[in-house]
Amino acid sequence: MAAAPILALQQIKLTLGSTLLLDGAELSVLPGDKIALVGRNGSGKSTLLKIAAGEIEPDGGKRFLQPGATIRYLPQEPDLSGYKTTLEYAEAGLEGGNDPFRARYLLEHLGLTGDEDPSRLSGGEARRAALARVLAPEPDIILLDEPTNHLDLPAIEWLEAEIKSLRSALIIISHDRRFLADLTKSTMWLDRGTTRRLNKGFSGFEEWRDTVLEEEELARHKLDRQIVREEHWLTYGVTARRKRNVGRLERLSGLRQERKDQRRSVGEVKLTVTEADMSGKMVAEAEHISKAFDGRVIVNDFTTRIIRGDRIGIIGANGAGKTTLIKLLTGELQPDSGKVRLGASLELASLDQRRAKLDPTSTLKEALTNGGSDTLIINGQPKHVMGYMRDFLFTPEQARTPVQKLSGGERGRLALARALALPSNFLVLDEPTNDLDLETLDLLQEMLGDYPGTVMVVSHDRDFLDRVATSVIVAEGEGQWTEYAGGYSDMVVQRGYGVMAPEAPVKGPKGNRNAAMPSIAAPPKAKLSFKQKHALETLPKTIAARDVEISRLQALLADPKLYTRDPKAFADASAKLTATEALKAKAEDEWLELEAIREQIEG
């Protein structure tokens, strides 16, 4: 017998302003489901997630949440007002029976101490605190809207492992392909107001989507040909001239209406980079450069050479000094020692991670034209700003919209449009994938592949780096940077581990872009962490308490008259017994793993 859904949305309709955003969208979540929710920017993914979380009431349709089921939602812009510390905020998401130490454990792994004042947090820190609050109670359903935004690679890889260990059902919106592919087992595609489900994880989605769109296009072509035939009959057919076959006229009218109503996919972003004259073959050369701030070494004795056409990925944890390294390599910042030599005829265009160059009070049109004329010069050809806006999926009505009113995805597209409109032969992109939908990411990757100049990109998106980079420069710690040929996955093969480096990493030859690192396993920790010690002490008590609860529920269900007397009580007890047994099994698995670690440490 198939399991009943714990959350279901049926025939959801929602209109925002004059736009029909959702038109019969559906969603069904079974226990333990791992679902990727995908769709274009502006298709309504975040809105559908808010409806699932119960935060928005739709215009039509039904929402069902199984009684007693717990649900937690991570918004893109969490509200921490009213809390004295991040720990107090995270602990507010806990319920009776939850591990009280889990909130601090999650905060620490997400780069927070728990003592931060929420009113002083950056947007990224607020989202990390909200992530801890969502995960802390291990609810039945977790809804995550762009959980990897503002996380560095070590945090992303840690978060993947943490989510994999949960039994919760999961719905994720993310632009991070690798994150989605690693975590999901089914995919929900929100397209033109409706949803379609693929019973495969995200790794199988894009091929399926392309097949669906090709079939739609073929069906449209057949319908067009059928309309042409019917119109030809209406104009030239003998029967038509004699008595006008009413049934056939109605059929033609129906075909025309079908063609009118047929949903077409939305337009595509047209990414075109404005190219400057070609730079010299040598773009930048750094020889034994070092840089320190307040006694902290950011770059130590680094050497590299960047050739025209290179696509360099810069990888490292937050605070490793990626922006400093870029400024050194582009001449914006002078090294304390060593020298940087820049090539001839360089025209640099950059995209800042914080989109700082966007004045929030300016309009979309002013941001693109700097308040100047209505015409931009793109690749030497004049282009009206309205046409350029359409290339990035902005409507003419948005021309006077203030930047601060745009969504995160729209601001990302606007920042890209500004950067790509500048004549350049050297692109520096700091986290360009933030807030872009997957289709726009595809086009950005294709554009970068065709770009004749040089690209330097900072990104925590592993899939994007694999598709774009010809080599990556990785922070090894203590100011050491090593360059590896290929993308992120190639780096992992050569280095032996990812950005979550061992505590005492072996460093490769400095500046050797083809140096291969031996495969090195991380050494075991010298002692158990506080959290692990606490879990070893408390888990046996937790397991014993769940044994008592299981025995109580089994005794209750053993009453043969319970079902006929109170069917709801029988169903609730059955569901609770299943959940308690699962929690006991998870606690036992965790205790066994920790016991094995303890035995290994103690020899």
Keywords:
603 residues; alpha/beta; Rossmann fold; 4 domains; 6-stranded mixed beta sheet; 19 helices; 20 strands; 40% helix
Summarize the structure in words:
The chain is α/β, with parallel strands linked by helices and 603 residues long. The chain folds into four domains: 7-207, P-loop containing nucleotide triphosphate hydrolases (Rossmann fold, 3-Layer(aba) Sandwich), CATH 3.40.50.300; 208-261; 282-347 and 423-495, 3-Layer(aba) Sandwich (Rossmann fold), CATH 3.40.50.300; 530-601, Helix Hairpins (Orthogonal Bundle). 40% of the residues lie in helices and 21% in strands. It contains 19 helices and 20 strands. Strands 5-6-7-3-8-9 form a six-stranded mixed β-sheet, with helices on both faces. It has a six-stranded mixed β-sheet with strand order 14-17-18-12-19-20, with helices on both faces. A three-stranded antiparallel β-sheet has the order 2-1-4, covered by helices on one side. Strand 8 and strand 9 (194-198) form a beta hairpin. The longest helix is centred in the last third of the chain and has 35 residues, at 567-601. The two termini are 48 Å apart.
- The SS-based structural class is alpha/beta
Our count of domains comes out at 4
Please name the CATH topology of the largest domain: Rossmann fold
Ends apart, CA distance between termini: 48 Å
CATH superfamily of the largest domain: P-loop containing nucleotide triphosphate hydrolases
Assign the CATH class of the largest domain. Alpha Beta
Task: Please state the overall shape, judged from the principal axes of the Cα atoms.
Answer: globular
Q: Sheet with the most strands?
A: 6 strands, mixed
Radius of gyration: 28 Å
Q: Can you count the helices?
A: 19
Report the mean per-residue pLDDT as an integer. Answer: 81
The CATH architecture assignment of the largest domain turns out to be 3-Layer(aba) Sandwich
